[in-house]
């Protein structure tokens, strides 16, 4: 993890914070960087659109492909404030980003943020489908974790998205 990584993660955090500071709004931010430039920066838009697949990473991959006119994002790095879910990890693989860097991981936030309780889909998918994608977590971990409900937050069941 480099200072350059932290710089881009700060941008992803700023995009996440553009939704405000309430964790219930799913403030996830993502930027995709290619050759030292941001080619896409998006936030989670599932409720706004509404679209269950409109995670920050999915939206950023769509914008990055549009802005480059390319189907493949080889050499690009995707920065996400939270460990990507299985869908977004798979989308990273299909879009051929070279590297995924995330901030907070599974253990840093409430379990509601992840689709499976017992399987870490990011590791599973990353290992299963490509061995040339680099996936690294913990970039500005504490700053990113602050955006979300903590592991021990007591939440009413109807506010827990995936349970
Ligand atoms: Zn996702």
What keywords describe this structure?
single chain; 163 residues; alpha/beta; Cytidine Deaminase, domain 2; five-stranded mixed beta sheet; 5 helices; 5 strands; 32% helix; globular; binds zinc ion; Cytidine_deaminase-like; CMP_dCMP_dom
Description:
- This protein has 163 residues and is an alpha/beta fold.
- It has one domain (1-150): Cytidine Deaminase, domain 2.
- Helices cover 32% and strands 17% of the residues.
- The chain has five helices and five strands.
- Strands 2-1-3-4-5 form a five-stranded mixed β-sheet.
- Strand 1 (29-34) and strand 2 form a beta hairpin.
- Helix 2 runs parallel beside helix 3 and helix 3 (86-95) runs parallel beside helix 4.
- The chain is globular, with a radius of gyration of 15 Å.
- The termini are far apart.
- The structure holds zinc ion.
- Zinc ion binds next to helix 3.
- This is Nucleoside deaminase.
- It comes from Sphingomonas ginsenosidivorax.
- Residues 3-120 form the CMP/dCMP-type deaminase domain.
- InterPro entries: CMP_dCMP_dom, Cytidine_deaminase-like.
- GO terms for molecular function: catalytic activity.
């Amino acid at each position: 993890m480099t200072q350059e990584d932290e710089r881009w993660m700060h941008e992803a955090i700023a995009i996440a914070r553009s939704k405000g500071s309430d964790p219930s709004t799913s403030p996830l931010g993502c930027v995709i960087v290619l050759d030292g430039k941001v080619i896409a920066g998006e936030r989670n838009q599932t409720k706004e659109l509404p679209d269950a697949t409109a995670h920050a990473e999915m939206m950023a991959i769509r914008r990055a492909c549009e802005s480059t006119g390319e189907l493949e994002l080889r050499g690009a790095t995707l920065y996400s404030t939270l460990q990507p879910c299985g869908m977004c990890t798979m989308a990273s693989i299909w879009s051929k980003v070279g590297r995924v860097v995330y901030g907070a991981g599974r253990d840093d936030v409430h379990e509601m943020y992840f689709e499976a309780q017992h399987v870490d889909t990011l590791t599973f998918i990353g290992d299963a489908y490509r061995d040339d994608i680099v996936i690294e977590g913990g970039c500005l971990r504490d700053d990113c974790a602050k955006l979300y409900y903590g592991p021990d937050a007591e939440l009413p069941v109807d506010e827990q998205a995936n349970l």
